[in-house]
Amino acid sequence: MSEPSVAPGPFDPPGVPWQPVSPRLTTARLVSAALTLVVPLAAGVVLAVLTEVTWLWALPAAVLAVGVWVVVVVPRQVRALGYAERDDDLLVRRGVLFRSIVVVPYGRMQFVDVQAGPLDRKLGIAKVQLHTASPTSDAVIPGLPPEEASRLRDRLAARGEAQLAGL
């Protein structure tokens, strides 16, 4: 599938080469959602069967509806994720319906984390998180292959040090 079309404007600066995240992030998010929804689904079914109250079948039906919504929305959300390294800053964009773009100047970065939970490691992805002095300007790039996450961490740390040294 192709990258979702992005309307020109504040969310698509001209000349910015966006890097997509791994499509394996879709699998990770769908597995997490399935694990989250299986307990309420099972509880709703058991409750409806044991009580024999017909309207209680609305509970598992609602959980299934949420599951279908997640299956439809998550792949689009993952395709909308991207990042771009520019000379002075890092751009991170996300969102389909509610879009956002975060611009983090390299000189404002305090440190860079690479994280991967058990499911992430199994799927071969990691998350890079940039920390700044302001908690509202932190940026997260999930779904990167571990090699790319490591390369990005080292590159961002080096660029951050170079920007601070230039002050």
Question: Which descriptors apply to this entry?
Answer:
2 domains, four-stranded antiparallel β-sheet, 167 residues, 23% strand, elongated, three-stranded antiparallel β-sheet, 46% helix, PH-domain like, alpha+beta
Provide a count of the helices.
4
Unreliably modeled segments:
none
Major sheet attributes = 4 strands, antiparallel
The sequence of SSEs as H and E is EHHEEEEHEEH
Full CATH superfamily name of the largest domain: Pleckstrin-homology domain (PH domain)/Phosphotyrosine-binding domain (PTB)
Choose one word for the global shape. Answer: elongated
- The CATH architecture of the largest domain: Roll
Summed over residues and divided by their number, the pLDDT gives a mean of: 89
Structural class by helix and strand composition: alpha+beta
Radius of gyration: 20 Å
Molecular structure report:
Helices cover 46% and strands 23% of the residues. The protein is an alpha+beta fold. It has two domains: 24-76; 82-165, PH-domain like (Roll), CATH 2.30.29. The strands form two sheets. A four-stranded antiparallel beta sheet has the order 1-2-3-4. α1 runs antiparallel to α2 (58-80). Residues 79-156 form the YdbS-like PH domain. It comes from Actinotalea soli. InterPro entries: YdbS-like_PH. It holds the Pfam family bPH_2.
Brief synopsis:
It contains four helices and seven strands, in the order βααββββαββα.
SSE inventory with pairings:
Elements lengths: L18 E2 L3 H28 L6 H23 L1 E4 L3 E6 L5 E6 L3 E7 L2 H6 L2 E7 L6 E6 L1 H20 L2
Antiparallel strand pairs: 1-2, 2-3, 3-4, 5-6, 6-7
Helix pairs in contact: 1-2
Protein name: PH domain-containing protein
Organism: Actinotalea soli
Keywords: Membrane, Transmembrane, Transmembrane helix
